[in-house]
Amino acid sequence: MVLKTFGWSFAVTALGLAFAAWQWGWEAFGIVLILSILEISLSFDNAVVNAGILKKMNAFWQKIFLTIGILIAVFGMRLVFPVVIVAISAKVGPIEAVQLAMDQPDRYEDLVTDAHAAIAAFGGMFLLMIFLDFIFEEREHKWLAWLERPLAKLGKVDMLSVCIALIVLLLTAITFATNAHTSTGHADKSATVLLSGVAGLITYLVVGGLSGYFEDKLEEEEEREHEEEEKAKREGKPVSAVGLAGKAAFFLFLYLEVLDASFSFDGVIGAFAITNHIFWMALGLGIGAMYVRSLTVYLVRQGTLDDYVYLEHGAHYAIGALAVILLITIQHEISELITGFIGVVLIAASFWSSLRRNKALEASEGKPGGPEEKAEVSSGV
Questions:
Q1: Which residues lie below 8 Å from residue 68, measured CB to CB, with a gap of 6+?
Q2: Half-sphere exposure of 226 toward its Cβ, with a 13 Å CA cutoff?
Q3: Are 313 and 49 in contact (CB under 8 A)?
Q4: Domain of life, per the record (predicted)?
Q5: Residue 13 has what DSSP assignment?
Q6: How far apart, in Å, are the Cα atoms of 181 and each of 111, 178, 249, 355?
Q7: Residue 243 CB: number of other CB atoms within 10 A?
Q8: What tens digit of pLDDT does each residue of 15-65 get?
C-alpha cells in the first residue's frame, strides 16, 4: 500500500536528485534535498486538510489530483508563480523575468522580496478564512472543547468570519504594512496589503462558494440516484449516469488547487533564503509537492481521518497559525523552521489526542453511560 501510493514520489525524488547532481553538481544535490524536506514539513497540514476534501471524490478524480493537479502545483506555483511575481513587480515580460532569474539571481530575489507584502496578505487572508470558517462551525467532535463550544455558538452570526477577516486585514495594514520590509529598506505597503488581502478574501469566497454549491448539488444528486437505483432494481432496468457529479468534483478539484497554492506561498518565499537558483527551487519544492499529494491520498485510502477525528482540527489550527505568521512577516522576518515546527506540534498534539480518544473508546466499549461522550471528555487537550 505504501509503495503503491508513494511510488511516484520515490521515483521523482531519485530522478530529481540524480538530475541535480548530474547537471549542477553535489551542491545542487544538497540544496534540492533541503528544499524537498522544507516543503514537506511546511505542507504536512496541507495534506491533512486536502485529505478531508479528497475523500469526497471518486477514484477518477483522485487520479486527476495526482496527475494534472501535481503539474499545476509544480509548474504553476513552484516555477511560474515566482516568475509572474517578478514580471508584475518589475513590469517586464515573463520571458525577460526568466532571463533575469538565470542571469541576475540577486536582482530576482530583491524583486520577490519587494512583492512579499502582497503575497503574504493574499495567502494570509485566504488561509485565515479557512481557519475561521472551521472554528465557527458546529461539529460533532470537539478537540479543544473549552474554546470550540463558545466559538461554534458565535458562528451562528451571519458573515462573522468575513467581518473578523476584514478587521484583521485592516489592523495588519495599519500595524505592519506602514513599515514593510523591502530590498531597499522600508516602505509604506498599506494600499498593497489591503488590495491583496481583499483579493485573497474574494478568491476564497468565490472558489469556496462554488465548491460548496456543487458539493450540495452532488449530495442531492447522489440521493436521487440512490432512489433511482432502488427503483431500477425493482423494475430490472439500468440507470444512466448523470454528469453533475463530475461538475461537483471539478469544482472541489479547483478548490484543492487554490488551497494548495495558498499553502505554497510560504514555501516559495522561504526557498529564497536557501537559494536564488529558480530551477533548484522548482525541483526541490516540486519533489516535496509530490509527497504532499501522495500523503493526501494515503490518508484518504487508509481512512486515517475517520480513525483520528482530531487530526483535522490540528491541521486547521496549524492553518490559522500559518495565516497569522504570513501577516506578521509583512514587517518582521520569521524563520521557516518556526513555521514548520508550529504546524508539526499542533498536528502531533491532535494525533495524540485522537489516540487517547480511541483507547478510551476501546476501554469503555460495552459499558453503560455513553462511551463516546466519556472518550470525548477524556481525550481533550
A1: none
A2: 6
A3: no
A4: Bacteria
A5: H
A6: 12, 9, 41, 43
A7: 8
A8: 989 999 998 888 888 888 888 877 776 666 667 777 777 777 777 777 777
